[in-house]
C-alpha cells in the first residue's frame, strides 16, 4: 500500500517523522507491505499524489490541495484521506470529496489531554481563579472561598473523544455529569445523557457548561445570547470546541453583567486573536491559544496508531472506525 | 460537659452557628449531656471561660486569649483547646500552654479541598497557564504545547492531611508520587516515601514539588536557595504550606532566571501581601490569597464532627486523635 504523509510546512512540534513511522510499524506488526513517502512542500506532494492510496495530512491543507473537481483525476488510486485533527470544519463544505475516497478524522488522539485540560478549567473556575488573576494584576489580597466539586452539575455538550475525556475526569471528582449528544445513547462517564433537542431544558441546571462538540452548521452559535440567559446566574463555561460554537460577544457581555461568573476558552474568533481584542481583557475570561487537546509527546504516535488500525480494517474489508460522514460534519 | 465556641469577631464565612452545632449533634448521637455557649467578643469569652471544659477557637486568638501564666488559673476546669486550623504556627511558642490542657488541631478538615487545589495547581503548571496568563496580559496568541501528567514525578513534602489529599489526586492522574515526611512510613497514596533527611536526594527528580508541611523551626526556609538549585531546571513548585517554608526571594529569583518554570502559591510573606510586592508581578508566579484548604460549605460541619470524635475519645479515656505535640509544632 502506498501511503503519503504531507506534513505542514512549518510546524516542528507536530511534524511526523520517518523514525515515528518506523516505531509505529514496530508497535503494529503484520501491517503488510507499505511504501511511505514524506513531504512538507508542494513539489513533494505533487510527486507522491498520482500513486498514493492513502494520504495523511492536516485539515487546513485539504481544500487547497484538492480543489473541487480535482478528485479522482489528480489521485486516481486514492482510497483514504486521513486528517490529523478531530474537527473537520476547516475542510467544509465537502464538495471536493468524491464518494470513492473515505475521509478519516483523528478522534481518539485527544481524549486524555482534553480530559486534563477540561478538569483543570473546571477546577480553576470553581476555585475562582479568574477573579484571583484580576486581583493579582491589581495587587489585591482578598480571599474568596469555594467548596469542592462533589455534587456539582456539569453539562457537557458533545461527548465524543474530547467531551468524553472531560466527563470521565469530572466524574472522578464526584460531579454530576449531564451529557448532551446526538441521539441519547447512554455514555459510560455520564450520569444522564440527553439528545441535542433537550439542551434548552438542561441549561438551567448547568453550574458548569462544557462545549466539546464539533463545529457544524447545526452547532454554529449553539450557545446563543438567548441560551446564555437560560443558564443559572453565575454559571461558568468552558469552550474546547470552536469559537463559533458560542456567540462570543454575548459571552463577553454576560461576563460583564455577572450572568456568567467565569469562562475558560481554548478557542476564539478569529484565531490568532488580535492583540487589542476584547476577549483578552474581559474580567472573568481565561484564554489559551488552542492547545487543549494536543499532547505534544504522544500526538504523532497516537495519530499513526489510529491510521494503522484503520488500514487494517480497510485491508480486511471492515468498516473504517474513524471514517466521518461529511454530510454530518463529523 | 461545658463547651465554649469563640468565633472570630468579623468572619461571617466561617462563624460556627447554633444551627450547625445542632446538626452536628444530630449527626453524632450519644454525645451525652453538653452545654454550649457561643461568643464573638471579649465579654462573651470572659463570661464563659471560668466554667469551660472545652474551648473551640481560632488559632490566631490563642496567645492573646491565654497570656503566659494565665492558665490554669483563668480557666481551672479547662481540659481541651481545639483550634479550627491545621497549622499551629500562629500560636507558637507554647509557653502559655500547661500540660493539663490538650491542644487539638483540625487536621482532616482540609484534605478534599486541598487535594482539588493541589491538582489544579499541578495541572495549571503542566499546561503552562502562568505563561498563558502573561500572554493574555500582552494580548499574544502563541501556542505552547504540553503532554499529560501520566508518568511525571511529583515530590510532596509533608503527607499529612493536605499533602495526602494532593498525593491521592496526583496518583489518579498517573503521576509518580514521592512523599517526604517525618520517618519513612509508607503512605497509601505515595509510590515511595522518604524521611526528611532524604530531601536533598529526591529534589533532582522533582519535576513538580509540592510544599504541604507545617511551619516549624525545622521547616522554616526548607526550600532554600541552595535546594532550589538542586531541582531540575524548569521545575514547578506549589506552596500550600506557609510562606516562610520557602525562601520567597530565592523562588522569585529562580523564576526570573528560568531555574523554575512556574509556581502556584496560596501563601506569602507577609499576609496580606502589599499591593506593590514583587511576588504579584514576577512572570511565572500565580498567587491566591490563602484559600486552598478552606471548603466554605463544609468546613464548620467537619470541624464539629472532628471535635465530637475527640470528645468521645476524652469521655472514654482513649487518646485524642487530633491532639498535637507543641514541642514538635504539629
UniProtKB/TrEMBL annotation, chains A, B:
One of its GO terms (molecular function) is oxidoreductase activity. Keywords: NAD, Oxidoreductase. The keyword Oxidoreductase applies. Residues 119-292 form the D-isomer specific 2-hydroxyacid dehydrogenase NAD-binding domain. Signal peptide: none annotated. Pfam families: 2-Hacid_dh_C. Coiled coil: none annotated. InterPro entries: D-isomer_DH_NAD-bd, NAD(P)-bd_dom_sf. This is D-2-hydroxyacid dehydrogenase.
